[in-house]
Inverse folding.
């Protein structure tokens, strides 16, 4: 029984924003555990290249371009998954945007709308699109990639924090309303992870030192370090976990 705990054979997972960074690593980990993974982002060539890399390792990978801020593309992503893989079991709402670091008073409504569209409406809509299939098969698993910013905002990241806090609320509501259909929803809250997304934080030596001063483990995470939580939450290892936040932050929140 124990060696089946993290097994994802027979499962089909959609991972948004999986051409690089955390999404790519979670997709890779899930594929290694036996899942069929549908890689997705806005960049066709990056996806094609990555899918070929996965296939080279005999992993079951598919790819579909999808901008998570476009409702029609989210619908097509689900249709593509059902057509090619025959089912869907896991959705990882990972894609997000943070185009500008600024104070709340400098954030205009255009930026507000753009961020909500991608960071909140995207996960909300994609989850609602898969819901009827999850309900019909009496099982489903949603993993929302939030952030420590969702519970402890940093200066200059106010809008992003609002988005990530709302994503935690979405996770809890999904768990509450859909638990009766055996659908689980959990959030992963990474701290600072070395990816393109957070480059401004770690590329500047002064800023990076400042950040690391607040991290008990005294280092920034690599995206590979999110693999474990990804497969834990996607698998039976977490079968009684729902509506929760799983933090991987090197201790940042207790500092
Ligand atoms: N890095 C950190 O320190 C950190 C910390 C806490 C939480 N997070 C969260 O972790 C998640 C992944 O971030 P990351 O650090 O792995 O970033 P990343 O390396 O920059 O990767 C972001 C991914 O999302 C895709 N993407 C961006 N906008 C998209 C859109 N509108 N529609 C579809 N795909 C889109 C990108 O691909 P294309 O450009 O090809 O579309 C890429 O695959 C995000 O939700 C982020 O908020 C990151």
């Amino acid at each position: 029984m124990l060696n089946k705990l993290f097994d994802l054979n027979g499962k089909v997972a959609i991972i948004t924003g999986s051409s690089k960074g955390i999404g790519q690593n979670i997709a890779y980990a899930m594929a290694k555990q036996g899942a069929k993974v549908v890689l997705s982002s806005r960049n066709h060539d990056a996806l094609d290249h990555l899918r070929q890399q996965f296939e080279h390792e005999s992993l079951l990978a598919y790819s579909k371009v999808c901008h998570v801020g476009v409702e029609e593309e989210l619908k097509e992503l689900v249709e593509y998954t059902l057509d090619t893989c025959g089912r869907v079991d896991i959705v990882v709402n990972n894609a997000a945007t943070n185009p500008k670091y600024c104070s709340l008073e400098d954030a205009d409504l255009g930026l507000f709308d753009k961020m909500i569209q991608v960071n909140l409406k995207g996960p909300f809509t994609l989850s609602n699109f898969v819901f009827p299939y999850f309900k019909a098969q009496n099982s489903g698993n949603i993993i929302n990639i939030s952030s420590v910013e969702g519970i402890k905002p940093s200066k200059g990241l106010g809008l992003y924090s609002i988005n990530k806090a709302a994503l935690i609320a979405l996770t809890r509501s999904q768990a509450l309303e859909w638990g009766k259909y055996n659908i689980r929803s959990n959030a992963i809250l990474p701290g600072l992870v070395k990816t393109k997304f957070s480059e401004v934080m770690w590329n500047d030596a002064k800023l990076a030192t400042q950040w690391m001063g607040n991290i008990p483990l005294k280092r920034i995470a690599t995206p590979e370090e999110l693999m474990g939580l990804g497969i834990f939450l996607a698998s039976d290892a977490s079968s009684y976990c729902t509506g929760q936040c799983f933090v991987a932050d090197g201790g940042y929140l207790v500092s």
